[in-house]
Amino acid sequence: MNYLDYSISFISGYVYGLCNVIVGQPLDTIKTRLQTIQNNDNIKKLNSFSIGKEIYKNEGIRGLYRGGCTLVIGGGLIRSAQFGVNNIVIIKLREKYGITKEEDKYFKIFDPQVVGIIMIIIIIIIIFIFIIIIIIINQLLVFVVLL
Questions:
Q1: Nearest-5° angle of CA 9, CA 11, CA 12?
Q2: Distance in Å from the first CA to the final CA of the chain
Q3: pTM (global) more than 0.85
Q4: CA 24 – CA 65 distance, rounded (Å)
Q5: For residues 130 and 119, what is the distance between their CA atoms, to the nearest angstrom?
Q6: Quick check: 111 and 105 in contact, CB under 8 A?
Q7: Could you read off the pLDDT tens digit of each residue along the chain, which spans 147 residues?
Q8: How many H helices and E strands in the chain?
């Protein structure tokens, strides 16, 4: 493996982070403006489209991307690290252990690592459900005691 193979995944991650900000930042700005508007009788019914038009009319394209510079840098670097490290780990694991053979896969579809991750997610969901049940029971007991 040469450094070009590693750098492609880092560059891909940065481009993904950049695209994420380019698409998401205007929507986030519009959402934030909608959340900060005070509800008065004088204000007509506003929606995302009208807020976006108002921002563009008053502040231009820069208004939609206000505060996005740090997200471009930070989001790009975070995604770059995620993609790059993931690719390096996969390459190193395949060099050490080889590619999973068809007979080692569960149901001829899932790698053993995927099944392990799915089991961890299922356990977390079960624990979360038990916590919610305990909270509900606790609230019911408090309600019954207050009656």
A1: 60
A2: 71
A3: no
A4: 9
A5: 17
A6: yes
A7: 567 777 888 888 899 889 988 999 999 999 888 888 766 555 666 788 888 888 999 999 888 888 888 888 888 888 888 888 888 888 887 778 776 666 666 666 666 666 677 788 899 999 999 999 998 988 888 877 776
A8: 5, 0
